[in-house]
Amino acid sequence: MSQAPLQAVEVFGAHILQQLPRFRSKFSGVPAYPPLFVAMQGPQGSGKTTVTRSLVAYLQTAGLTVGVLSTDDLYHTHANLRKVAEESPDNPLLAGRGQPGTHDVALGCRILASIYVINATKRHVELPVFDKSLFDGQGDRAPGRTGAILEGDPAPTGPSLKAPLDVFILEGWSMGFSPIPPEEVTSKRDASPSDSPLRKYTVEALHQINRNLEAYTEWYRNFSVFLQIRPTNLDNVYIWRTQQEHAMKASNGGIGMTDDGVKAFVDRYMPGYHLFLDTIQQNWRWKGKSKSITIDLERRIVDVSDF
Asked: For position 286, which CATH number holds?
């Protein structure tokens, strides 16, 4: 009898259930321990959002309360995104949302700090929402979704978190990326083939993204477990993202990007993968407590490893 295919939610869910009591043991005698902070990273189209949704259901079935936030919802407002682009006119990587430098890092820090102490403070934490449909697809933070910290027991008007919270997951395409030495940025670009995504941009543009990442490391302060989805080939991201666009257009009457438009869209993200993807498994904060799966073009798991 053939064995059932391994599912990402089972691998990740079992890992969190294993790590949770170990995490809580560090807070013996503390009246209200913080939630276990779990980071998740995977490239566009890898199924990260679907896996996260299934993981929440898996953990809830185990009796846990779970909160989730996407780094996409921490993008700057539309006005500030325009300001970022105007301040760096020679860097096309900052011409729209996506790369380090286009998120409201201070907002993320404030929200994450409040979630970490949510079980002790009993405050509600409102989650921001970034609406990608606004401004003809350029996006903007949804009206009223400022990420406020609320006292008492207010009636939620949108996504929010409250105590008790057992597990908190922050997921994103660049979650866990850390800056690398400037000379490594230069050497990686110089060593890449002429048709590499790194060669599409000036070395100055790449250095700016690397510098922008410095501020993001503050987000990682309380994360102790990392879940990573890795592709067997980074070029799979182009295929997955094109498949997503075709599916969306089939359901909405054909509204969406052309295949060339999808390629140009993904091109802007590729330098991040080539420069910073390997930094995730080198981070001491979650090293020794994290899990990685590798998936093929059909999103089937071909490898599972600890790091």
From this structure: 3.40.50.300
112 falls within a domain: yes
Mean pLDDT for each consecutive 10-residue tract of the chain (307 residues)?
74 98 93 96 94 97 98 97 98 95 97 97 94 87 84 73 97 98 98 94 98 98 97 96 89 86 89 97 97 97 97
Closest CA to 221 of 67, 117, 128: 117
Give burial (CB, 10 Å; 0-12/13-18/19+) of 196.
middle
Concatenated DSSP letters for 233-248?
STTHHHHHHHHHHHHH
Residue type (1 letter), 20:
L
Whether 2 is covered by a domain: the verdict is no
pLDDT digits over 130-165, tens only?
A: 998 888 888 999 988 878 887 766 666 679 999 999
147 membership: H or E segment, kind and range: none
CA atoms within 13 A of residue 262's CA, in its CB half-sphere? 22
- How many structural domains comprise the chain? 1
Is the pTM above the cut of 0.85? yes
Which domain does 235 fall in, by range?
8-300
- Is 193 a domain residue? yes
